[in-house]
User: What shape does this take?
Amino acid sequence: LIGRLMFELPEEMGLIAIAVRQTQGKGRGGNVWLSPMGCALSTLHITVPLHSNLGQRIPFIQHLVSLAVVESVRSIRGYEDIDLRVKWPNDIYYSDLMKLGGVLVNSTLIETTFHILIGFGFNVNNSNPTICINDLIMKFNKKEGTKLKALTADCLIARTVTVLERLIDIFQEKGPNGVLPRYYKYWVHSGKQVRLHNDEGPIAWIVGIDDYGFLQVHEEGKGVVSVHPDGNSFDMLRNLIVPK
Assistant: This one.
C-alpha cells in the first residue's frame, strides 16, 4: 500500500503505515519477522536527495533508525538506563543478550531522489518470542526500586520518527561524525573480539563503522578492513562474522 502511495504524494508530505499485527513480516535476507500483538510495527517513507551527505551514504539509514528506536526510550527522563542497545547493522537488542527489534530498508532512486521505505518493528508489550521493552522497564523497577510506567507502541513509534527526523537533519549537516558519538554510546560491539568466517577463523577486533556505514574490524596482522552487511552476517551468540 505505502509503496504505491509514496509516488502520488507531494514531496514534502510524510507518510507512515502502522500495523497492530503483521501476518507476513519480513526480515533481512529473506528471514521471517514474527509480529504478535504488542509489537510496534510500521513502515515509514522518506525522501533523500542523491547529492547530499546521506544520499551518498544510504547504508547509514538503517543505523540512524536503530539509534532512533533506542533513543525513543532512553531519551525519556528516568528511562536513560533501560539497557536498550543497537547491534550492527540493523537490530535493537537488550544489552548484548537478546534481540527485540529490527530495521529493514528498501530504496528506489528516481532521477536525483531516493525514495526510502523503512520498515521497523520492536517488541513493546509482548514478552514472546524473546523479550520486550516493558519487560526491561519492570526489571529495572524491581532492581532500582523505581516506578517507571510501561510504554505504548503508539508513543514509541511517534518518538522514533521524531528522533529519526532530527538525526537525519544532523547527518545532512555534519555527515557521519555528527551522529556516530551517539551511535557508539548505545552499540553493543565496542572492543569486542570476534572470529571471521567460522569458529576456527582468524581473530579480529571490532573497531567501529566506516564513513559509509560498514563495520570495521582489525584482523591480526592485516590491519583494519570493512565488512559489508549485504555479504556478511553477524552471529552474536557465537561471536562470528560469517559470509552469507
Observations:
- The chain has two domains: 1-185, 192-243.
- The chain has a mean pLDDT of 86.
- Helices lie at 2-5, 60-74, 133-144, 153-174, 180-186.
